[in-house]
Design a protein that fits this description.
It contains six helices and six strands; from the N terminus they run ααβααβββαβαβ. The protein is globular, with a radius of gyration of 18 Å. Bound molecules: flavin mononucleotide.
């Protein structure tokens, strides 16, 4: 599949079929995450594959009440929990070396972007779930305190084809030479 097609047509999926996700496809998703770039190749991201019904049910309870992904978390065959080892990305000899602190969110997001696009190319649906109690999820999953639970990601076969939410026009967020100097027709 052409990369731009995947980038533009991937959608957040919040309704899933009950069909299981074959393990070889799951492995391909994780392989694509493995090859994502990371700070000085430190690869701080880690993943927990949750298929157990009871654990999934417990994880649903960590989502905010209003979270539209709640039903999806229940019905989906697999939830990939993205974690990250802290104090790796953006650190040298244990010291933070940029004004942005720990880059773990950034590196984990890069891996998840690979994963979501690969999932789409394989006919699978995903949704990023960030609105949840990460500490509580960490307790459920025995995550040690030097590791952050970054995101929950349901994965399964889509049972809906959502319309794409609008994106801002380039002219509203791309500037020429200095911040605020908007581009008109050509870059
Ligand atoms: C970091 C992050 C956290 C998100 N958290 C949630 C969430 O908790 N629940 C949910 O239903 N969608 C969540 N989303 C999905 C966004 O709402 C969705 O990506 C956005 O509306 C654009 O839609 P699209 O993914 O179909 O293009 C999250 C997306 C990102 C990138």
């Amino acid at each position: 599949m052409d990369l731009m097609t995947a980038i533009k047509n991937r959608r957040s999926i919040r309704k899933y079929k009950l069909d299981p996700v074959p393990d070889d496809l799951l492995e391909e998703l994780l392989e694509s995450a493995r090859w994502a770039p990371s700070w000085a190749n430190t690869q701080c991201r880690e993943f927990i594959i949750v298929k157990d019904k009871t654990i999934k049910e417990q994880l649903v309870e960590t989502l905010t009440e209003w979270n539209p992904a709640r039903p999806a978390m229940r019905e989906v065959p697999v939830v990939i929990v993205a974690c990250a080892k802290l104090k790796r990305a953006g650190f040298r000899k244990g010291e933070v070396i940029t004004d942005k602190g720990d880059w773990f969110m950034f590196d984990t997001a890069l891996a998840l972007q690979n994963l979501t696009l690969t999932a789409y190319s394989l006919g699978l649906g995903t949704v990023h779930v960030g609105a949840f109690d990460a500490k509580e999820a960490g307790k459920i999953l025995n995550v040690p305190d030097y590791v952050a639970v970054v995101e929950l990601m349901p994965v399964g076969y889509p049972a809906e084809e959502p319309n794409p939410p609008l994106r801002k026009e380039l002219s509203t967020f791309v500037y020429r030479d200095k911040y605020g100097a908007t581009i008109d027709s050509s870059i």
